[in-house]
Amino acid sequence: MLRRILESIVAVAAMTSALLGFAQDYPTKPIRIVVPFAAGGPADIYARFIGARLADALGQPVVVDDRPGAGSIIGTDLVAKSAADGYTLLMMSNTHTVNETLIPNRPYRLMRDFVPVATINYSDLVLVVHPSTGFTSLNELVRFAKANPGKLNYASSGPGTPYHMAGELFKAMAGVDIVHVPYKGSSGARTDVLGGQVQMMFDAVPTMSEHARAGRVVALGTTGKTRSAVLPNVPTISEAGVTGYEAVIWLGLMAPKGTPPQIVDRLNAEIAKIQNRPEVRQEWLSQGAAPMVMTPEEFGRYLDEDTVKWERIVKISGAKPDQ
After folding, report:
1. Which range marks the domain in which residue 229 is found?
2. 99 and 40, same structural domain?
3. Rounded mean pLDDT of the chain?
4. Which residues have C-beta within 8 Å of that of residue 152, sequence separation ≥ 6?
């Protein structure tokens, strides 16, 4: 019996030593960041931004792999089933904390199958309408929507995404009936709003502000607590009449469960260094995004809290995964 116990101790020690050596050598080959959303949206843009700088810091290429579909489930499940070695990471957003409630029959569970690595940034959304609607204020839109239930449509990048849930929260708080038109990604939704095929959309400030300033769309309100520095002349939706309204999009990185803590900590530290560079903070703020810097433990608590928050909103709004 004593010999077996000693053999087990030796085996565990050898395994621990091997893992420590593996983590210390990391990385020795390219790293892949899977983005479970369409190219051209905030997740794709900031994955490439972070990836390029991580590659410089780690001395290995960082490849961004866009795998959209099924409201982020296809790409997310791919990462959940990947080796827990730090070479496959997931770029995720509050779509994932929404989906914990909105889409119960997923092949993965966020906090069961992944470990938090690092938060990236957050940005306000902006509610825009096509100029052909004739709306110049949020009150005009709300009055029309109340008088004409179901006549207005809003585009989103798919069920459970921040764009979708911002719309459902708006409908619930403003007391209006507006039809959700889901797309497979934000680029397609944005294109059809710019073309007038769909009348309105909640979109991330960094990707829609240029179109608003150029007059291709009319910005009626931003979704933060305070006005956006990028669109200072646009009131918040709360200011404009839907008191207390707030919705943002945030991004973060996760890894498959079992990824060595030393690798998670290394990635977190390198990402924090990137976020804290003055030129990075300035560039993001000029785009309407703000860095989010958290330890993996803080990020884990944030994920738990955000999941509870969106569970309440999904139930209040009555949102469904096929709407």
Report:
1. 124-240
2. yes
3. 92
4. 141, 144, 145, 176, 178, 179, 199, 200
